Amino acid sequence: MTSVNPQETDKRRPGRESLAAPDQLIVARPHVNLVISAIAELGLPIQVTEEENSGPLGLQLVAVNGFADGQVTGQLDAEYQKRVASMQQPGLRPAGGSPRTDLEKLLFCIRHDFAGRYRGWSPEMGRNRHVESITGLPHLSGTGPATKFPEPSPDGPLRVAGVLRRERTGRDVVVGLLDTPLFNHPDLTGRFVADEGDILSSGPPYPHWAGHATFTAGLILRQGPAVALNMRAVLNSDTATGTAWDVAKRMVEFRGTGVKVLCVPLGGFTEDGQPPLVLSRAVELISPEILVVAAAGNHGELEPPAGRSHPSPKSAMFPAALDGVISVGGLDDNNQVTSFTPKVPWVRFLARAEDVSSTYLVGDVDIQHHDNERLGLHDGHTGQTTFTKYAKWSGNSFAAGLVAGRLAALTADNGGDPWDALKTFEEQLGGAFRRADLR
């Protein structure tokens, strides 16, 4: 299989400055030349180049360089204002208000021009959105679950490894996992496949989110001896961030691999609440053969950034909010909905998400704070903690892992049909798993 090196992902942005890459568009492959020509017609001093092409997605990554020049900003703003003044396509105005970035203004201008020329039609295109580990949301700094960060857990072989190492049945059902690189934990040995680039290669001290995949993997595999993993890293271990482009590319790589269930414990917001083009396309392509399970996000108590209404506790998290995706929220140890689970109608199931124990890193770990006022990573530490294979942690990523693992175990029981397993899962709901009815 083809790998991306998660250590190189998004290296221009050690922290996220916005919800999307500032200089990248994603365009439907048949219309790339048309879009490039439309940008050229604006006469701006910018350079547009074709970057990566994803044949399976039918999409092209396009770089737009030169926005750092103040001259571009002035000229682009003039073009934008001119179109707003004569706009005959009011639906083009962004739902969240006026565009805030040069790339948003550029998209507005070319969509306006296409719509005027072709009676409302414009090519499929959008920005390359950022995604991140769900654990990074809502950047807890005083609210939310009791365990805001991973803590060492006494759980050992009797409660974790003993379950993982039970005798195999020979009818393995494979769960795909998109996450940070996986720590080569002894309890997971023999239960996963991964390329070299998908394995955590750095040594301690680790940032605490570097153990996110390892923690989620343990919860998936605990659901049954016939469950196995196909692991692919899409988030770097330093910041637990990546791009929707990389996530979508790796999603479609699972087609034809025998993966029955895909766990996606990551996500991102959009300003207007509309789904990112590239993630919608990926889910559409893989959902006929793979059940996609995604974490609903931990933003149920999130306070919007100062002066903005977004993101909020009601904001859509993608890919969880997409049609065709099984979205999972969390339960606390009293079997009640956690305070950090968003109360939104697209959450389908609930599973344990608070003070969960699972496999984790070995060695010194830096417990790092996220800032609560913006979607960015900032320096700040609570100090180092030493872990010895297991941790206790909270978040809806882990609820998604439990549901994905349970669906895989039921698929193994029925001979390999994940949709029949989903039906059985719904019929057996109760106890550790519940149906969500949130508003």
Q: Which spans of ≥5 residues are poorly predicted at pLDDT below 50?
A: 1-17, 136-147, 370-381
**What is the element string, with H for helices and E for strands?**
EHEEHHEEHEEEHEEHEEHEEEEEHHE
Mean pLDDT: 82
Largest β-sheet summary: 8 strands, mixed
Main β-sheet, spatial strand arrangement = 7-9-6-11-13-14-15-18
Give helix % range.
10-25%
**What count of helical segments does DSSP give?**
9
The total beta strand count reads 18
Structural class: alpha/beta
Instruction: Please report the distance between the alpha carbons of the first and last residues.
Output: 41 Å
The gross shape turns out to be globular
Could you please describe the fold and organization of this structure?
By secondary structure, the chain is of the alpha/beta class. It is built from 9 helices and 18 strands. A hairpin with a 4-residue loop joins strand 2 and strand 3. The relative contact order is 0.16. The N terminus is likely disordered.
